[in-house]
Amino acid sequence: MALLEVRDLVVGYDQYPVLHGVSFDVEQGECCVLLGLNGAGKTTTVTTVAGMLQPQSGSITFDGKELRKGSPSQRVAGGISLSPEGRRLFPRLTVSQNLKLGAWSRRRDSKTLKRQMDLVRDYFPRLAERENQLAGTLSGGEQQMLAVGRAMMSRPKLLLIDEASLGLSPTVARTVWEVTSRIKADGTTVLMVEQNAGALPFADRALIMEKGTLVYTGVGDELRTVNLREAYLGSGA
Ligand SMILES: Nc1ncnc2c1ncn2[C@@H]1O[C@H](COP(=O)(O)OP(=O)(O)OP(=O)(O)O)[C@@H](O)[C@H]1O
Description:
Blueprint: E1 4-13, E2 16-26, E3 31-35, H1 42-49, E4 57-62, E5 65-66, H2 72-78, E6 80-83, H3 95-101, H4 110-123, H5 125-129, H6 140-152, E7 158-162, H7 170-185, E8 189-194, E9 205-210, E10 213-219, H8 220-223, H9 226-233
The chain binds adenosine-5'-triphosphate (ATP).
Adenosine-5'-triphosphate (ATP) binds next to helix 1.
């Protein structure tokens, strides 16, 4: 059984559906990338999995249990954590305070907190050097690292990352994806949303969305062919 099973998901804003029956699995221990053009429905998919939107129909099963209505913090407590589009940091809090907030809905004994903090420091040494700096004064890349680091503070089984590369230079985007690969290698399952096909080498499998439906799922290697990329991701991908 897959760690995450999404079936026939219909989700809309004000009842107007933008996901029209999306189904996919994310297997335990893999890193999947959900690709597609602007407005394809990627953010809607991951925010629904994270409990921020309620589906009109369909089901989401995580770790063997169907997720019924529940708050995002209940999902975090259950092992699903989201690094959201736009990062949503607390700009007037320090790096370290932002990280600690990521752990609030999980058990917070000081030993566990310290262990998780050490792990995030190890993933992102740049954050470790800037722990007392206000988040709003970090560079875009550092803010993205902080968003992923904060999501990791809850020790998720499934880490959702929405558009980590947005607005970053290719080198910084690569650094973030490399850490994503390490996170996966250390045992956290990852589903990342991207518009940037540069993420493909870091993923075991790709899912491609178009206009609220999944149009392709396959191994990353297949997608390195120019035709598929042009068909689904636009010629600039
Ligand atoms: N809060 C909202 N209210 C109404 N419609 C929305 C809202 N958020 C997204 N939509 C619409 O839902 C559709 C899917 O958007 P979504 O953000 O999920 O796509 P996406 O693939 O993540 O694209 P992007 O990269 O631009 O975030 C789009 O047509 C979008 O206009």
